[in-house]
Amino acid sequence: MFEVVVAMETVGKFPNFQEAFRVFFDKVKKLVGQGASLNVLGTTCWIEYSNILMYFYDARDLAYKVGVLKGRGELVDPLPKIDHQVIDVAFAERALVAFEEFMMVKPDEPLEYKLLK
User: Fold this and answer.
1) Residue 95 main-chain phi, psi, to 5 deg
2) What is the pLDDT confidence band of residue 112, given thresholds at 50, 70 and 90?
3) pLDDT in tens, 9-44
4) CA distance 18 to 103
5) Pair 67, 80: CB distance under 8 Å
6) Are 89 and 66 in contact (CB under 8 A)?
7) Which of 37, 55, 62, 92 is 20 to 30 Å from the Cα of 1, by its Cα?
C-alpha cells in the first residue's frame, strides 16, 4: 500500500502508485494555491511505500518517468498501468540515496565509525 502524507497529515492509503500520486498531486496543488513554500513541498509532503519516503519532487519526477504526468504537470487520464517492479526499483533507489546522504556527514571517517555512532 502507498500512504500519502501532505503537510504532515495522512491523506490515505492506496493500492498503487498511480492512484496515490493522483490524490497526492491534487492535495499538493491545493496547498500551493494556499501559498505553501517550495520547502514545505520538499519536507512535509511524501508518498510512503515499504517504509520508504519519497518526497514531493522525487515523486513528481517518477510520475513523469512512468507516464502519470505529462507536459506542464497534467495528470494523464486514464491512469496508465505500470509494472510494479519499476515502482519497487524507484523506491529502493530513493532509499539508497537517503542512506548515502546520511553517510556523507564526514566522508573521511571509516564506515565502521559512522555505523557505530
Assistant:
1) -65, -40
2) low
3) 999 999 999 999 999 999 999 999 999 888 888 899
4) 31
5) yes
6) no
7) 37
Q: How confident is the model at residue 83 (pLDDT cuts 50, 70, 90)?
A: very high
For the chain, the farthest-separated pair of C-alpha atoms sits apart, in whole angstroms, at: 50
How far does the chain reach from its first CA to its final CA, in angstroms? 33
- For range 33-62, the mean pLDDT: 93
Cβ 74 vs Cβ 67: under 8 Å: no
In the predicted structure, residue 1 carries a pLDDT above the cut 70: yes
What DSSP string runs through 82-99? --HHHHHHHHHHHHHHHH
H helix runs in 1-117, sequence order = 17-33, 38-44, 56-65, 84-103, 111-116
Total residue count of the chain as it appears in this document: 117
DSSP-based three-state secondary structure for 78: coil
Stretch 46-74: mean pLDDT, rounded? 96
Instruction: Give the number of other Cβ atoms within 10 Å of residue 58's Cβ.
Output: 19
